[in-house]
Design a protein that fits this description.
The structure is a single chain. By secondary structure, this protein is of the alpha/beta class. The protein has helices spanning 31-48, 121-133, 159-163, 168-184, 201-212, 247-252, 276-286, 306-320, 360-377, 383-401, 464-469, 473-482, 510-513, 517-533, 547-558, 576-582, 593-601, 617-626, 642-650, and strands spanning 63-69, 73-83, 86-95, 102-108, 136-140, 189-199, 218-222, 259-264, 293-298, 411-421, 424-433, 440-447, 454-460, 487-491, 538-544, 564-567, 606-609, 633-635. The chain has 19 helices and 18 strands. A nine-stranded mixed beta sheet has the order 1-2-3-5-4-6-7-8-9, sandwiched between helices. A nine-stranded mixed beta sheet has the order 10-11-12-14-13-15-16-17-18, with helices on both faces. Helix 4 (168-184) packs across helix 5, helix 10 packs across helix 17 and helix 17 runs parallel beside helix 18 (617-626).
Length: 654
């Protein structure tokens, strides 16, 4: 393997997804195929936005003060406490005519000039128009816009925050969920007729909410949904969100409920009528709901101008007032005169800014604490709770890592040099997946005179394939020892060994669109496992050095029987710095990180060695005790040598 240049062959080193890439849209042939995809995609959005597992809903403590009234509607200044001492500001527009309960809509705004936010002229016009038409409207601020003063909207986020799925986009999505809670709690609102509409960045907020909250009955994302521009603000790009997907597919999650895409010749939605909308429409067609999906296209520029607003009014009236029946005559925007904007501002002498308002850093710490407590409350303590945890969290771990076990027909296997050394046959191979371009260096070691139905997948942080082929280090000794009973496949996971190479990462919001190195390494383990499954009945996984952590994360998804050996590599499982430096996967800590992985492996035989005292052994013991399988669990703080590892692998489990 020495001298083989693999760096140029692995497409993952060079191909980078980003917000301005033109994405091919998938084709779904059946409703079942789409529903399977939608289930995982919805979970991906929830995890990316920090909403899985769900946060506790603390009291909203709404404060409302009437600030304007005319013959048609009343406007209130509103403050909601979406997290303790964290405030969402907005205006509530209530119609005076007609008979309650009224249909209602949420109005998130886009990146209009600061500090106007929801008070931008076009935003006030559409809110007043909808109130005149007979809708209750709640218009609310983005974080750091308008009267929301606790966050700097475009302030950089940190990797430490992303570990816990904490982001501006996630907080804004939670604000939308709580704004919906507020609307649904109003006695004059019809709980079955609440929609959402926003333009540009408000369009992004609209389809984020539509993806995570099934209480919404109508969505109108305006001048935003594109396959070649996904949103350029930090609030539109939580990490993980668009790995292997893009906005049109996320929008399609709203099917089969009424959805209107408003697009324009003057921005990135110019191709919506012929590209993005036909894709979304195809999903609605699979669900026999084609009439509930429409596109209104304009030439007004990137603004929520009058033509676009009227398209929105008519769509909302049709589906929220007219039970889906087309209107006889289009409704025009009512004439109006805008009151002084200062009357609508939330804070004043009668409603001063709260002295206890938390900072962004304080909110981050609160969210981390809640996440820890939520996961701890989920720790299984009996057989049934273990089953529930595994059923719920296996998909969560898979989605967070963005990995899967490829089907055998999707594998690509290419052979290289072959040699025989001391009765062992060593075959170089390269593994990959169709249409991906990945190239995983591997060495398959087989006894020349004996066949076996069991195999060991060997991974090391330095590159096991390179070390075995070159007869280096303890890895080569371990491989030779294991071949006394097993066939061995040693691989160089992504950017290790002969797969080492520089990766192109110089794009904005890289981790919103791309897997981390560590997630790619977990995928390589699963790809190699899929290759071994074609030939062996039982497959054991062994990770040396930090690769033990990759194996720990991969094992729950591998879908094979066999033992698992994890070198914990003295990893400090309570230290965010350790995760950032040695095992960086956004959102991983939010779903329970290593605790969840260990619990998902039970009751397979598991050996964890070279661990710190704070490694989550209590979770391991709880999981294995829950199924009376403690004899299959071995936890050791001291590192084990290759002879001890080989002995544990070959020794039968009682």
């Amino acid at each position: 393997m020495v001298g083989t240049n693999l760096n140029e062959q692995d497409a993952r080193l060079k191909f980078v997804r980003h917000l301005d890439l033109r994405y091919d849209l998938p084709t779904y042939k059946t409703a079942d195929e789409w529903q399977r995809r939608a289930e995982l995609l919805r979970l991906q959005v929830q995890i990316a936005c920090g909403l899985f597992p769900m946060l506790p809903k603390t009291p909203l403590n709404p404060r409302r003060i009437v600030c304007y009234e005319d013959e048609d509607f009343v406007v209130e200044r509103v403050v909601l406490e979406t997290f303790p001492n964290f405030y969402l500001t907005g205006n509530l527009y209530r119609p005076k005519k007609g008979k309650p309960p009224y249909p209602a809509v949420l109005h998130p705004h886009g990146h209009v000039p600061q500090p106007e936010g929801r008070l931008y002229e076009r935003e006030r016009i559409r809110a007043m128009a909808m109130a005149k038409i007979g809708f209750v409207v709640f218009a609310y601020d983005m974080v750091g816009y308008g009267d929301q003063f606790q966050v700097v909207h475009r302030a950089p986020e940190t990797s430490h925050e992303h570990l816990w799925a904490i982001s501006k986009g996630g907080v804004q999505t939670w604000n939308s969920v709580r704004a919906l809670d507020f609307l649904l709690g109003l006695p004059e609102v019809d709980k079955k007729r609440v929609g959402c509409c926003g333009s540009s960045g408000g369009g992004t907020q609209t389809f984020f909410l539509a993806a995570v909250d099934d209480r919404l009955v109508l969505a109108v994302p305006t001048k935003m949904v594109s396959a070649h521009m996904q949103g350029g603000c930090i609030c539109e790009n939580p990490p993980l969100l668009r790995v292997d997907t893009c906005n049109p597919e996320i929008v399609a999650l709203f099917a089969p409920k009424p959805l209107l895409l408003i697009s324009d010749d003057g921005d990135w939605t110019r191709e919506t009528p012929k590209y993005e909308f036909p894709f979304v429409q195809s999903v609605y067609r699979l669900l026999n709901a084609e009439d509930r999906c429409a596109n209104a296209h304009f030439s007004e520029g990137h603004d929520f101008a009058r033509g676009s607003r009227e398209a929105y009014y008519n769509w909302a009236i049709r589906w929220q007032k007219n039970k889906g029946k087309p209107l006889g005559e289009p409704v025009k925007e009512p004439a109006m005169q805008l009151p002084d904007v200062q009357r609508f501002r939330v804070w004043g002498d009668d409603l001063p800014k709260p002295h206890n308002a938390v900072t962004w850093n304080a909110l981050v710490n609160w969210l981390k604490t809640q996440a820890r407590e939520t996961i701890e409350q989920m720790r299984p303590n009996d057989k049934n709770s273990l089953k529930r945890f595994q059923r719920l969290m296996r998909s969560a771990l898979q989605v967070t890592l963005a990995v899967s076990v490829p089907a055998s027909e999707h594998l690509i296997v290419q052979q290289g040099e072959r040699k025989t050394v001391n009765g062992l046959t060593m075959q170089q191979i390269w593994l990959g997946r169709k249409n991906i371009g990945d190239r995983i260096p591997a060495v398959q070691i087989s006894p020349t005179e004996r066949k076996t139905k069991e195999a060991v997948l060997l991974v090391s942080e330095k590159g096991a394939a390179m070390e075995v082929w070159n007869d280096e280090r303890e890895i080569a000794k371990l491989a030779k020892q294991l071949t006394k009973r097993f066939e061995v496949l040693a691989i160089d996971a992504f950017r290790t060994g002969m797969a080492l190479g520089e990766r192109k990462t110089d794009v904005q919001f890289f981790f919103t669109y791309n897997r981390t190195d560590d997630a790619e390494r977990v995928q390589d383990i699963l790809t190699a496992t899929a290759y071994l499954r074609q030939r062996f009945n039982r497959i054991h996984l062994v990770g040396i050095g930090t690769a033990g952590l990759w194996v720990l994360l991969a094992a729950p998804m591998a879908g094979v029987e066999g033992k698992v050996i994890v070198d914990a590599a003295q990893f400090d499982a309570n230290d965010d710095d350790e995760f950032v430096k040695r095992l960086f996967v956004p959102c991983l800590r939010r779903i329970g990180d290593l605790k969840t992985a260990i619990t998902l492996i039970a009751p397979r035989p598991l050996l964890i060695h070279n661990s710190r005292p704070n490694f989550p052994r209590n979770w391991a013991e709880s999981a294995y005790k829950a199924v009376n399988a403690l004899q299959k669990l071995s936890l050791r703080e001291k590192p084990m040598d290759f002879e001890q590892l080989a002995e544990w692998l070959t020794k039968p489990v009682k």
